[in-house]
Amino acid sequence: MKRVVVMLVVALASYAVVSAQSWTTLFDGSTLDGWNQIGDANWRLADGAVEADSGAGFLVTPRPYGDFELTLEFWVDEPANSGIFIRCADPTTVTDRNSYEVNIYDTRADQTYRTGGIVHIASPSGVVNTGGQWNSYQITARGSRLQVTLNGQEMVDVEDSQFASGPIALQYGAGVVKFRNVRVREL
User: Fold this and answer.
1) Is the Cβ–Cβ distance between 76 and 177 less than 8 Å?
2) How does 39-75 read in b/e, with b if 16+ C-beta sit within 10 Å?
3) Within 13 Å and on the Cβ side, how many CA atoms surround 61?
4) Cβ count within 10 A of residue 7
5) Which of 126, 120, 186 is nearest to 156 (CA)?
């Protein structure tokens, strides 16, 4: 019996190590190396985050992701317009029509796809106002299933098969937008 328990503990420990090692840090707070910039947003590094407050544009990963889990933190002011675009079909022209946009836009005129929703796909299950504080997103894309969790609250769990793979993009549209601790794990 002791041998079985020891083997189980060793197997679980090995699994934990493999799981922990499978995360890739996309942004660590110190450099924008590994990101392609499109548009004229004034991205800059400050206090371990990347931030912008003018222009319009994206930071785009150079490689595509299919099935993955993405975690990140963001800070926005109340009028901010931003989002996390996943499975971008065209990494040089990112839009809410050629990718999935997990929205960050508390004051969006049409609240249907406000913060926590996926624009044109799924409304958020609740209202979470994110302005003036650090917030966390967990975004999972596995096959046609898309899940969004905001500050620990499940916001979206939907099936959609428009886009199977593509880069990830961080958007600056308006207000003050900051991102930190951006990590991805392929599934």
Assistant:
1) yes
2) bebebeeeeebbbbbeeebbbbbeeebeebbbbbebb
3) 23
4) 10
5) 126
Q: Residue 119 and residue 85: Cα distance in Å, rounded?
A: 10
Give the whole-angstrom CA distance, residue 125 versus residue 44.
Answer: 33
- Which residues on neighbouring strands pair with residue 45, listed in sequence order? 50
What would be the CATH architecture of the domain defined by 25-186? Sandwich (2.60)
SS (H, E, C) 44-86: EEECCEEEECCCCEEEECCCCECCEEEEEEEEECCCCEEEEEE
Can you give the pLDDT of all 187 residues of the chain as single tens digits? 555 444 444 444 444 444 445 999 999 999 999 999 999 999 999 999 999 999 999 999 999 999 999 999 999 999 999 999 999 999 999 999 999 999 999 999 999 999 999 999 999 999 999 999 999 999 999 999 999 999 999 999 999 999 999 999 999 999 999 999 999 999 9
- Of 60, 25, 75, nearest to 175 by C-alpha is 75
Domain ranges of the chain: 25-186
